[in-house]
C-alpha cells in the first residue's frame, strides 16, 4: 500500500466525526480527477471548433494592447464561443414531448433522486421533474455530471456550465481548477503561463479575470471559496470576497480545524500526485522533483503570498450584475446587484 493510501485510511475515521462543512469540503477533493482521463479529453476535443477558436484568438491578440500571451487569447476565444454560440442556460427545461419552452407554461414539480438508469448514463444524482401545461406531459431533467454527456446536451445551470468548460480546458491541456463557493456557485480558473498566476473564468458570464464580479458586481455575500486541482485544495476566499461581502468564516465551522484538515487533504493529494509522477518518471528522481517543484510547489507558494498580500480583493473595475438566470431566481439568491 502506498503512503497516500495509508493516509486516506487514517483520515477516514477523523472525517466520519468531522463537522458537516468540513466533510463537504473533503468531498470536493475528488471532483477534478475525471478531467485528466484520456478518453474524456479526446471526447471533449471533438466539441471544439478548433480552427475558429485559434483564428479568433489571433484576432483578439492583434487587437489587444494588454500584455497577455497567446494561451490567454485562446482561453478568451474559447470562453466567448462557449457563452455566445455553444452552451445554453436552462431555467425550466424544454418539454421533451411538444418542445414547449414557454416558461409560463411549464410548472416545476420539484426534484427527486435520480433513477439508476440516469445515474448509470451520466452520474446524475438529482433529477428535476416538470409538467408541461401545453401537452400535459410530465418529464424529467436529470442534473448530469458526466462531462461528455454535459457537453453533448450543452445546456444547464452553473454546475453544467463549469463542468463542460473544465472538460474543454483540460482537453486543450490548459491547466485548470474547479472553484467552489459555499453559497452555491461554481466557476473555474486556468493557470496563465504569461501572467504566472491562476486567472478567474466564469463561463456563464463570459467573465475573464474579474474575481470581484460576485461580491461587487452581484452583491453576493460569501463565506468560503475553495480552488480544487489535481494536486491541491486552496482557500482562495481572499481573492473573491471583499471585507464588505464576507460572511464570517467562523459561522460555517471551526476555522482552525478546517485549516488543519485542508493541510491533511493536501498532504494526501501531494503523495498521490508524487506516486503518479514516480510511475511516470520511474527512477528519474530529479525529473520527478523538478516537475513537482515547477508545476505544484512554486505556483502554490506564489499564490499563498499573493492571497496574503494587501492587493487582493481591492480592485475597483466596472462589474456587471449577473447575466444568466431569470430575474426572480437571481433576486432570490441575492445576486441581482441590487
Ligand atoms: Zn409539452
Automatic annotation (TrEMBL):
Keyword Zinc included in the entry's annotation: yes
Presence of the UniProt keyword Membrane in the record: no
PANTHER family reported for this sequence: PEPTIDE N-GLYCANASE PNGASE -RELATED, PEPTIDE-N(4)-(N-ACETYL-BETA-GLUCOSAMINYL)ASPARAGINE AMIDASE
InterPro entries: Papain-like_cys_pep_sf (IPR038765), PNGase (IPR050883), Transglutaminase-like (IPR002931)
Biased composition annotated in UniProt, kind: Basic and acidic residues: 315-338
Upper taxonomic lineage: Eukaryota, Fungi, Dikarya, Ascomycota, Saccharomycotina
GO process terms (BP): protein quality control for misfolded or incompletely synthesized proteins; ubiquitin-dependent glycoprotein ERAD pathway
GO molecular function: metal ion binding; peptide-N4-(N-acetyl-beta-glucosaminyl)asparagine amidase activity
Keywords: Metal-binding, Zinc
Domain Transglutaminase-like: 150-205
Family per similarity comment: Belongs to the transglutaminase-like superfamily. PNGase family.
Origin species: Babjeviella inositovora NRRL Y-12698
GO cellular component terms attached to this protein's record: cytosol; nucleus; PNGase complex
Name of this chain's protein: Peptide:N-glycanase 1
Entry superkingdom: Eukaryota
Start and end residues of each stretch annotated as Disordered: 312-338
Amino acid at each position: 500500500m502506498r503512503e497516500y493510501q495509508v493516509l486516506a485510511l487514517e483520515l477516514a475515521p477523523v472525517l466520519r466525526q468531522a463537522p458537516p462543512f468540513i466533510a463537504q469540503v473533503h468531498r470536493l477533493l475528488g471532483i477534478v480527477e475525471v478531467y485528466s482521463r484520456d478518453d474524456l479529453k479526446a471526447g471533449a476535443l471533438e466539441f471544439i471548433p478548433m480552427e475558429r477558436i485559434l483564428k479568433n484568438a489571433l484576432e483578439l491578440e492583434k487587437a489587444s494592447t494588454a500584455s497577455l500571451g497567446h494561451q490567454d487569447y485562446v482561453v478568451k476565444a474559447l470562453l466567448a464561443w462557449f457563452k455566445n454560440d455553444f452552451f445554453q442556460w436552462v431555467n425550466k427545461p424544454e418539454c421533451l414531448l411538444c418542445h414547449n419552452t414557454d416558461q409560463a407554461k411549464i410548472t416545476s414539480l420539484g426534484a427527486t433522486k435520480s433513477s439508476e438508469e440516469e445515474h448509470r448514463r451520466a452520474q446524475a444524482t438529482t433529477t428535476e421533474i416538470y409538467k408541461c401545461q401545453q401537452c400535459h406531459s410530465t418529464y424529467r431533467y436529470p442534473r448530469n455530471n458526466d462531462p461528455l454527456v454535459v457537453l453533448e446536451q450543452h445546456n444547464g445551470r452553473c454546475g453544467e456550465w463549469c463542468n463542460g468548460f473544465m472538460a474543454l480546458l483540460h482537453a486543450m491541456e490548459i491547466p485548470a481548477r474547479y472553484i467552489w463557493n459555499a453559497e452555491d456557485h461554481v466557476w473555474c480558473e486556468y493557470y496563465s503561463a504569461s501572467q504566472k498566476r491562476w486567472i478567474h473564468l466564469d463561463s456563464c458570464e463570459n467573465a475573464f479575470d474579474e474575481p470581484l464580479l460576485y461580491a461587487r458586481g452581484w452583491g453576493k455575500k460569501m463565506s468560503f471559496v475553495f480552488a480544487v486541482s489535481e494536486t491541491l485544495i486552496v482557500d482562495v476566499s481572499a481573492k473573491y470576497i471583499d471585507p464588505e461581502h464576507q460572511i464570517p468564516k467562523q459561522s460555517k465551522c471551526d476555522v482552525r480545524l478546517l485549516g488543519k484538515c485542508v493541510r491533511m487533504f493536501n498532504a494526501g493529494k501531494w503523495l498521490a500526485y508524487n506516486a503518479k509522477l514516480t510511475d511516470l518518471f520511474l527512477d528519474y528522481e530529479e525529473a520527478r522533483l523538478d516537475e513537482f517543484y515547477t508545476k505544484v510547489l512554486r505556483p502554490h507558494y506564489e499564490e499563498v503570498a499573493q492571497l496574503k498580500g494587501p492587493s487582493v480583493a481591492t480592485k475597483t473595475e466596472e462589474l456587471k450584475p449577473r447575466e444568466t438566470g431569470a430575474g426572480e431566481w437571481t433576486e432570490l439568491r441575492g445576486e441581482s446587484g441590487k
